[in-house]
Design brief:
Layout (H helix, E strand, L loop, with lengths): L14 E5 L10 H11 L3 E8 L4 E9 L7 E5 L2 H9 L4 E4 L10 H6 L3 E8 L4 E9 L7 H30 L3 H7 L2
Parallel strand pairs: 1-3
Antiparallel strand pairs: 1-4, 2-3, 2-7, 5-6, 6-7
Helix pairs in contact: 1-4
Length: about 180
Protein backbone atom coordinates (compact mmCIF):
# COMPACT_ATOMS: atom_id res chain seq x y z
CA UNK A 1 0.00 0.00 0.00
CA UNK A 2 1.29 3.44 -0.87
CA UNK A 3 2.23 5.86 1.87
CA UNK A 4 -0.88 7.72 3.01
CA UNK A 5 0.34 11.28 3.24
CA UNK A 6 -2.51 13.55 4.28
CA UNK A 7 -3.24 16.01 1.49
CA UNK A 8 -5.78 18.69 2.38
CA UNK A 9 -7.53 20.23 -0.62
CA UNK A 10 -7.80 23.91 0.31
CA UNK A 11 -10.80 25.73 -1.18
CA UNK A 12 -10.83 28.96 0.82
CA UNK A 13 -9.70 32.09 -1.00
CA UNK A 14 -8.18 34.72 1.27
CA UNK A 15 -8.87 38.37 0.59
CA UNK A 16 -6.21 41.05 1.19
CA UNK A 17 -6.88 44.77 1.67
CA UNK A 18 -4.23 47.47 1.92
CA UNK A 19 -5.18 51.13 2.32
CA UNK A 20 -2.03 53.22 1.89
CA UNK A 21 -3.32 55.73 4.47
CA UNK A 22 -1.94 53.46 7.20
CA UNK A 23 1.60 54.29 6.04
CA UNK A 24 2.86 56.96 8.40
CA UNK A 25 -0.08 56.61 10.78
CA UNK A 26 1.17 56.13 14.32
CA UNK A 27 0.45 52.65 15.63
CA UNK A 28 1.87 50.44 18.36
CA UNK A 29 3.47 48.34 15.59
CA UNK A 30 5.56 51.20 14.18
CA UNK A 31 8.76 51.05 16.27
CA UNK A 32 9.35 47.37 15.49
CA UNK A 33 8.20 47.71 11.88
CA UNK A 34 10.44 50.68 11.07
CA UNK A 35 13.48 49.10 12.74
CA UNK A 36 12.91 45.86 10.84
CA UNK A 37 12.54 47.70 7.51
CA UNK A 38 15.81 49.55 8.13
CA UNK A 39 17.72 46.42 9.19
CA UNK A 40 16.34 44.40 6.26
CA UNK A 41 16.89 47.21 3.76
CA UNK A 42 13.26 46.74 2.77
CA UNK A 43 11.27 49.25 0.74
CA UNK A 44 8.00 48.16 2.38
CA UNK A 45 6.95 46.54 5.65
CA UNK A 46 3.33 45.76 6.55
CA UNK A 47 1.40 44.03 9.30
CA UNK A 48 -1.85 42.37 8.25
CA UNK A 49 -4.48 41.28 10.77
CA UNK A 50 -6.44 38.15 9.85
CA UNK A 51 -10.22 38.09 10.31
CA UNK A 52 -11.02 34.40 10.22
CA UNK A 53 -14.80 34.92 9.96
CA UNK A 54 -14.51 36.57 6.54
CA UNK A 55 -11.12 35.11 5.46
CA UNK A 56 -9.67 38.61 5.16
CA UNK A 57 -6.20 40.01 5.81
CA UNK A 58 -6.36 43.78 6.42
CA UNK A 59 -3.21 45.90 6.69
CA UNK A 60 -3.17 47.54 10.13
CA UNK A 61 0.30 49.11 10.05
CA UNK A 62 2.81 49.89 7.37
CA UNK A 63 6.02 51.53 6.29
CA UNK A 64 6.96 52.40 2.72
CA UNK A 65 9.73 54.58 1.35
CA UNK A 66 7.65 55.80 -1.61
CA UNK A 67 3.97 56.73 -2.04
CA UNK A 68 1.58 54.04 -3.23
CA UNK A 69 0.64 54.00 -6.91
CA UNK A 70 -2.91 53.05 -5.84
CA UNK A 71 -4.22 54.35 -2.50
CA UNK A 72 -6.67 51.59 -1.58
CA UNK A 73 -6.63 48.11 -3.09
CA UNK A 74 -7.90 44.64 -2.43
CA UNK A 75 -7.26 41.28 -4.02
CA UNK A 76 -8.45 37.70 -3.65
CA UNK A 77 -5.74 35.04 -3.64
CA UNK A 78 -5.98 31.76 -5.48
CA UNK A 79 -6.92 28.70 -3.43
CA UNK A 80 -3.37 27.35 -3.73
CA UNK A 81 -1.80 30.63 -2.50
CA UNK A 82 -4.39 30.80 0.30
CA UNK A 83 -3.59 27.21 1.28
CA UNK A 84 0.11 28.05 1.36
CA UNK A 85 -0.56 30.93 3.78
CA UNK A 86 -2.82 28.71 5.90
CA UNK A 87 0.05 26.19 6.29
CA UNK A 88 2.88 28.76 6.53
CA UNK A 89 4.88 28.27 9.73
CA UNK A 90 8.21 29.97 8.97
CA UNK A 91 9.32 33.01 6.97
CA UNK A 92 9.37 32.44 3.22
CA UNK A 93 10.57 34.67 0.44
CA UNK A 94 10.15 34.77 -3.30
CA UNK A 95 9.75 36.90 -6.37
CA UNK A 96 6.42 38.67 -6.77
CA UNK A 97 7.13 38.82 -10.50
CA UNK A 98 7.60 35.09 -11.06
CA UNK A 99 6.24 33.09 -8.10
CA UNK A 100 2.48 32.43 -7.90
CA UNK A 101 2.56 32.51 -4.10
CA UNK A 102 3.78 36.12 -4.06
CA UNK A 103 2.45 37.63 -7.29
CA UNK A 104 -0.91 38.79 -5.90
CA UNK A 105 0.38 40.54 -2.80
CA UNK A 106 -0.71 44.15 -2.86
CA UNK A 107 2.83 45.41 -2.28
CA UNK A 108 3.57 44.41 -5.88
CA UNK A 109 0.63 46.40 -7.25
CA UNK A 110 0.87 49.43 -4.97
CA UNK A 111 4.65 49.75 -4.44
CA UNK A 112 6.17 47.77 -7.38
CA UNK A 113 8.11 45.38 -5.16
CA UNK A 114 9.69 42.27 -6.65
CA UNK A 115 11.19 40.41 -3.67
CA UNK A 116 8.74 39.53 -0.87
CA UNK A 117 9.31 38.05 2.57
CA UNK A 118 6.19 36.73 4.30
CA UNK A 119 6.22 35.83 8.00
CA UNK A 120 3.20 34.29 9.74
CA UNK A 121 1.96 35.87 12.97
CA UNK A 122 0.60 32.85 14.81
CA UNK A 123 -0.96 32.74 18.25
CA UNK A 124 -1.18 29.57 20.27
CA UNK A 125 -4.09 28.17 18.30
CA UNK A 126 -4.56 30.25 15.16
CA UNK A 127 -3.16 32.46 12.46
CA UNK A 128 -3.54 36.07 13.64
CA UNK A 129 -1.91 37.85 10.72
CA UNK A 130 1.13 38.28 8.51
CA UNK A 131 4.24 40.42 8.43
CA UNK A 132 5.49 41.26 4.95
CA UNK A 133 8.69 42.90 3.76
CA UNK A 134 9.22 43.97 0.18
CA UNK A 135 12.05 45.15 -2.04
CA UNK A 136 11.78 46.66 -5.48
CA UNK A 137 14.92 44.77 -6.53
CA UNK A 138 15.14 40.99 -6.74
CA UNK A 139 17.96 40.43 -4.24
CA UNK A 140 17.13 37.81 -1.63
CA UNK A 141 16.82 38.62 2.05
CA UNK A 142 19.86 37.27 3.93
CA UNK A 143 19.46 34.50 6.55
CA UNK A 144 20.13 36.98 9.38
CA UNK A 145 17.24 39.13 8.12
CA UNK A 146 14.96 36.08 8.25
CA UNK A 147 15.97 35.57 11.89
CA UNK A 148 15.37 39.24 12.74
CA UNK A 149 11.98 39.04 11.00
CA UNK A 150 11.12 35.89 12.96
CA UNK A 151 11.94 37.62 16.28
CA UNK A 152 10.04 40.76 15.29
CA UNK A 153 7.06 38.60 14.33
CA UNK A 154 6.91 37.21 17.88
CA UNK A 155 6.63 40.76 19.25
CA UNK A 156 4.01 41.75 16.69
CA UNK A 157 2.04 38.59 17.46
CA UNK A 158 1.86 39.69 21.11
CA UNK A 159 0.36 43.01 20.04
CA UNK A 160 -2.20 41.27 17.83
CA UNK A 161 -3.12 38.87 20.64
CA UNK A 162 -3.82 41.82 22.94
CA UNK A 163 -5.93 43.47 20.23
CA UNK A 164 -7.97 40.28 19.82
CA UNK A 165 -8.62 40.17 23.59
CA UNK A 166 -9.50 43.87 23.98
CA UNK A 167 -13.01 43.73 22.44
CA UNK A 168 -13.92 40.95 24.88
CA UNK A 169 -12.81 43.09 27.83
CA UNK A 170 -14.83 46.04 26.52
CA UNK A 171 -17.98 43.92 26.26
CA UNK A 172 -17.67 42.97 29.93
CA UNK A 173 -17.62 46.63 31.03
CA UNK A 174 -21.16 47.60 32.00
CA UNK A 175 -21.19 50.88 33.91
CA UNK A 176 -21.33 54.18 31.98
CA UNK A 177 -18.26 55.58 33.83
CA UNK A 178 -16.22 52.43 33.14
CA UNK A 179 -17.37 52.37 29.52
CA UNK A 180 -16.36 56.01 29.02
CA UNK A 181 -12.95 55.25 30.56
CA UNK A 182 -12.47 52.14 28.39
CA UNK A 183 -13.21 54.06 25.20
CA UNK A 184 -10.57 56.73 25.85
Amino acid sequence: MASAAFQYDFHTRYYFRLNAEIVGAETEFDPALIMLALQAQADTAFVYRFDQEVSEFRAVAGHADTPAAIRDAGVTLTPSASGWIFRLSDPEQGSANSNERFERFLERLQYSVDRMLVVPLRGKEQLLGLLTLGRRNSSAFAPEVLEIARRTARSLTGILERRVQEPERLRVVRTPDALAFAQR
